[in-house]
Amino acid sequence: MIAIGRGDGLYNTIEFLHTRGLSIGLVVTSKAYAEYTRNEDDYATLASKIEADFKLVDRLDTELLQPYIASGQTDVAISANWRFLIAADVIRLFKLGILNCHMGQLPDYKGNAAANWMILQGERFMYVDVHKMDEGLDTGDIISRKEIPLTEESYVGDLWDACNQAMPELFEQAINHLRQDPSYRLCENSPTGLRCFPRLERDHLINWGRSASDVCRLVRASSRPLSGAYTFVDAKKITIWKARAVVMPYPFLAMPGHVLQINKSRGTVLIACGDNALEAEEVEVGGQIMPATDFFKSIRTRCGC
């Protein structure tokens, strides 16, 4: 088989499948994003360790892969976090196709940053899906899947960890299913459904006029290993890493972003939102991570300006 992609989950999968006796002849990767723990150098070292060839490229083509198909020993490829659509002629090289791992609720939440968008939308679960690639984006039939619950305590890093942990066994299940029955599918996917587009760092800027639940979801969807939801106080950037939505015990009038209460015993600060309040627990200022009360000292402080 051939492994194509980036990220911690695929790295773990390659190691796992190698220990399970599956032969991996080629590892293909491209430059890692900053939030990935494993980068292209780690992939090169892993390929050498398992005696696989290694390619660092930005484009897949039949010329690159054909020698491995021609050997007669490669019938399937696995993929995760590859940056580009893979052409149909490349997919057709493989007898059992290319299996891709995707976080979402296929047939919905196709595309980019699905886990982040699902937190923002208030979903209650997501799937880690291994599906067969076709010429569409995340449209091929699903071969194996695991459901992951989403709660008001779920941060994007938690979802990435859950996916990375589930991925190796889901790929093994999918490969075994297809080698026993090439027509196997757990459920049919569809070219229709919700499409997600990338989120940029500027999208992490907090709008305090939104509801407390919305602001809290933004914090959770932008948190580690991403750059974090942020605001400004007197032109100083404040990143909020951890927070929760709360209901104030009394009615109040305050401008959105205004500090309502400083809880020194808890190390937290209540900040007014469009409907209620956010309890900020952990913040970062000037590269220093601290309890919110180490920065916010007065109820005459307002975020967002």
Helix percentage: 25-40%
Adjacency order of strands in the biggest sheet: 3-2-1-4-5-7-8
For this structure, the CATH topology of the largest domain is: Rossmann fold
Give the structural class.
Answer: alpha/beta
Name of the CATH homologous superfamily of the largest domain: Formyl transferase, N-terminal domain
Overall number of structural domains: 2
In round numbers, the mean pLDDT is 96
SSE string, helices as H and strands as E: EHEHEHEHEEHEEHEHEEEEEE
Q: How far from one another are the termini?
A: 54 Å
Runs with pLDDT <50, length 5+?
none
Give an account of the 3D structure.
- The protein is of the alpha/beta class and 305 residues long.
- The chain is 26% helix and 27% strand.
- It has two domains: 2-196, Formyl transferase, N-terminal domain (Rossmann fold); 201-294, Formyl transferase, C-terminal domain (Methionyl-tRNA Fmet Formyltransferase, Chain A, domain 2), CATH 3.10.25.
- It has a seven-stranded mixed beta sheet with strand order 3-2-1-4-5-7-8. Strands 10, 11, 12, 13, 14 and 15 form a six-stranded antiparallel beta sheet that branches. A two-stranded parallel sheet has the order 6-9.
- Helix 1 (8-19) runs parallel beside helix 6.
- The longest helix has 25 residues, at 156-180.
